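RECORD TYPE: inverse folding
INPUT: structure tokens
STRUCTURE:
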């Protein structure tokens, strides 16, 4: 029996012929290069869609020494809706995105390096400067969600895109002070290392400075020091509330909206009303902030600008271009929880 061949797969030359351009222009468009006019770019993508053309990714990787894959690493992927905005932009630029749940081990970074991603957005503060510089030195450029100061400088292969958390916390504390609160507790994010009031965390710096500027007492008993789990955080809050009436907090500044929602649930179980008995504030204006009861008072930053800076920064680093650090301003969002 004569063997029948399947339908011929469309080639790059077929795309070029249908679009009325050269095969080189097709390559420029597929590789998202800026040297092609909008009209030709639209014609190429229309031809790609009409023909059902799929480039040979393996061959392109060998030819360009690029995998066209980017890792987005986050400690709490399920709670971070911002990453999907970044993924959508990168998808339009022909990059495949891997969502990775961060693990606090050096072997995790080794595994990431072995996967040969073109770049990484690291939304995790598990790692020290030696580990980060080692990963960047292996040839993987990094954009870091930087929320703390490092003892040693980070290398040129590492840039930063993050909210200006220090200013955001100051806005929260200033607002609570204006509302008459004098005993304000500080609740870090889950599994975040805390070293007391003199730590290197930007949010802690904002808390300490704003408390001092408002003439409010700093009391380490009102700072949650054990963030290993939700249970340890709730236990710390219970200890704060067990202080004498003149010493216990009248407000809790929680550094994450999802954690703030869980804290509100815990307080309800204790029979403590928000905001009548204690005020609660969050951070980031995540989707959950508007659906808690009462709605959270929090601080926000532009998620669209954030996604744009991260995605464009990653692509620029892949191209070998210099990328500066970017900190996005934050604004107060007044809800009913404070």
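DESIGNED SEQUENCE:
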């Amino acid at each position: 029996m004569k063997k029948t061949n399947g339908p011929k797969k469309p080639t790059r030359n077929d795309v070029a012929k249908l679009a009325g351009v050269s095969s080189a222009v097709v390559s420029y468009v597929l590789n998202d290069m800026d040297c092609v006019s909008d009209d030709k770019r639209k014609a190429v993508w229309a031809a790609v869609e009409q023909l059902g053309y799929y480039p040979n990714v393996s061959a392109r990787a060998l030819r360009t020494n690029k995998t066209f894959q980017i890792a987005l690493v986050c400690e709490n992927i399920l709670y971070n809706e911002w990453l999907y905005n970044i993924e959508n932009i990168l998808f339009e630029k022909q990059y495949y995105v891997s969502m990775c749940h961060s693990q606090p081990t050096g072997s995790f970074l080794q595994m990431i390096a072995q996967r040969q991603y073109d770049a990484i957005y690291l939304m995790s503060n598990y790692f020290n400067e030696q580990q980060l510089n080692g990963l960047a030195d292996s040839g993987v450029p990094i954009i870091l969600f930087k929320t703390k100061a490092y003892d040693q400088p980070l290398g040129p292969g590492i840039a930063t895109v993050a909210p200006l958390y220090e200013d955001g916390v100051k806005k929260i504390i200033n607002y609570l002070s204006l509302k008459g609160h004098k005993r304000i507790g500080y609740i870090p994010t889950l599994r975040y290392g805390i070293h007391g009031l003199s730590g290197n965390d930007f949010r802690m710096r904002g808390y300490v400075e704003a408390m001092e500027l408002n003439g409010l007492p700093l009391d380490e008993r009102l700072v949650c020091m054990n963030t290993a789990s939700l249970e340890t955080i709730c236990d710390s809050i219970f200890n704060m509330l067990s202080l004498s009436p003149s010493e216990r907090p009248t407000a809790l500044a929680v550094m994450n909206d999802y954690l703030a929602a869980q804290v509100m649930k815990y307080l309800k179980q204790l029979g403590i009303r928000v905001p009548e008995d204690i005020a609660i504030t969050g951070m980031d204006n995540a989707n959950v902030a508007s659906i808690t009861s009462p709605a959270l008072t929090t601080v926000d930053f532009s998620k669209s600008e954030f996604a744009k800076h991260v995605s464009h920064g990653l692509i620029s680093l892949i191209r070998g271009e210099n990328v500066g650090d970017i900190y996005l301003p934050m604004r107060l969002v007044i809800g009913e929880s404070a």
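NOTES: The mean pLDDT is 87.
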